[in-house]
Amino acid sequence: MLIGIGVVLILILIGYLFHRKWKFRSIIISVSLILLAVVSYLIATNHQNHYGMHVFIDSSGSMLYSPIANHPRILLYDDGAPNNQKRVYYFKQYPNQPTISKTDSQATITKVTIIEQPASLVTKTGYWIYNSSNSQFWFDFSHNNNQFDHKSYYFNINSSWIEMSITEAKQQHLLDANTLQQIKQAKIATY
Questions:
Q1: For a tag on the chain, would you pick the N or C end, based on fewer CB atoms within 10 A?
Q2: pLDDT tens, the chain, 191 aa long
Q3: Are residues 82 and 113 in the same domain?
Q4: Which stretches are transmembrane (predicted)?
């Protein structure tokens, strides 16, 4: 906010000096242009580096259910990614969920862990927030407050669960037309 006002004042000063005949006009215009360049650089740097901010991680957990209705212990993933990197997993968070949820393909971490407890999913989302009100006063010109930083998925599945690709599920005739349609709709929702 403060730097934005400073930029406007520098531009007004430069415009004013262009119309005046003054001995030190060229020096003041040069200094003003240098100040303008420095301020622009600081704004761009702050926007990238999030000065005066830290990442706040919002964590939420839920039970995990198979997207395939007849087989309640399958964690289904999209095998379209090369070398199985950035797999997209399909799941339900409550038993009678009408539509299938999926992980974000740009997630920072998607980790599957075998545990001896009921299946669950922990989703962690990181946002940039200001360290203090002083930080917000000095750095708010970049408007980074509550900016999304990353999302991570941690699947905790029981050893009785099977991790299976969509292609494998099709080959074993586990996917009905309704489930395939829901998976297609989940993929379309990305774009």
A1: C
A2: 556 676 677 777 777 767 767 677 777 778 878 887 887 787 778 778 888 889 999 999 999 999 988 888 999 998 765 555 678 999 999 988 888 999 988 888 899 999 989 999 999 999 999 888 888 877 776 677 888 889 999 999 999 999 999 889 888 888 888 888 888 888 776 54
A3: yes
A4: 27-44
